[in-house]
Q: What sequence folds into this?
């Protein structure tokens, strides 16, 4: 009899009701399949009214905890809490969607970097809700931090070399030059950046330097001895080696 009752309930549903149920089912499956936390919150209090199941997997807190007052504020990393909340409130008041990255503290004390993409819902001219998705970007942040640390180490090595290390654009203007330039030419790095390297070369050696530079632009490493004129007009010999920096095949 129970089975017959169920069958009658299904049979009694209108096509519109069946379509609505199917749509709801597809929506729930879609939200559950997204590799991020789908959420909705009150615009005035920033209190969550909905979070998807991924929230529990990502940070370890039961979903009901997310619905508590001030959950979001209280679980942002202390170093990010003030600016992140202030930024969200400011953008919400301006009725402007926003996208920002900050750290949250997981239930097991892990620090998780999140990218939060927020849509501001406006009804009758008033901001009513916030909707968004939080994506875990911790691995990317780790790689970025490792890259910054490597760049700092390399810069430390370069800036302590006795030789001058430089880079220039395709026109020959310096884009970087190491501090050693001041010792050998009396020019500071700041005085050199943006200037054409040819302005420092003795006129008689310019043709050879021009030829060498053209070869470098064509993709060929070069080594050349030439005379350089320092800030006081004195002349000294330098041995320069250059090679092209290839980026995106160019």
A:
């Amino acid at each position: 009899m129970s089975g017959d009752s169920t069958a009658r309930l299904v049979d009694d549903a209108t096509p519109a009701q069946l379509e609505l149920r199917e749509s709801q089912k597809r929506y729930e499956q879609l939200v559950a399949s997204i590799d991020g936390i789908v959420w909705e919150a009150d615009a005035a209090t920033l209190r969550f009214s909905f979070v998807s199941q991924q929230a529990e997997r990502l940070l370890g807190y039961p979903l009901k905890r997310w619905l508590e007052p001030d959950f979001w504020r209280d679980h942002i990393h202390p170093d990010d809490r003030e600016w992140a909340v202030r930024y969200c409130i400011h953008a919400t008041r301006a009725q402007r969607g926003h996208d920002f990255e900050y750290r949250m503290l997981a239930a097991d004390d892990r620090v998780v970097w999140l990218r939060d993409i927020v849509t501001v819902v406006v009804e009758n001219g008033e901001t009513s809700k916030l909707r968004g998705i939080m994506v875990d970007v911790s691995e990317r942040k780790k790689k970025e931090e490792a890259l910054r640390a490597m760049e700092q180490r390399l810069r430390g090595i370069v800036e302590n070399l006795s030789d001058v290390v430089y880079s220039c654009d395709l026109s020959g203007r310096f884009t970087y030059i190491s501090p050693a330039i001041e010792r050998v030419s009396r020019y500071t790095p700041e005085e050199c950046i943006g200037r054409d390297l040819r302005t420092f070369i003795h006129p008689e050696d310019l043709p050879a330097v021009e030829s060498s530079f053209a070869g470098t632009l064509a993709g060929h490493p070069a080594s050349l001895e030439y005379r350089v004129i320092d800030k006081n007009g004195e002349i000294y010999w330098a041995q320069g080696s250059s090679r092209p920096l290839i980026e995106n095949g160019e």
Q: What stands out?
A: Residues 138-158 form the longest helix (21 residues).
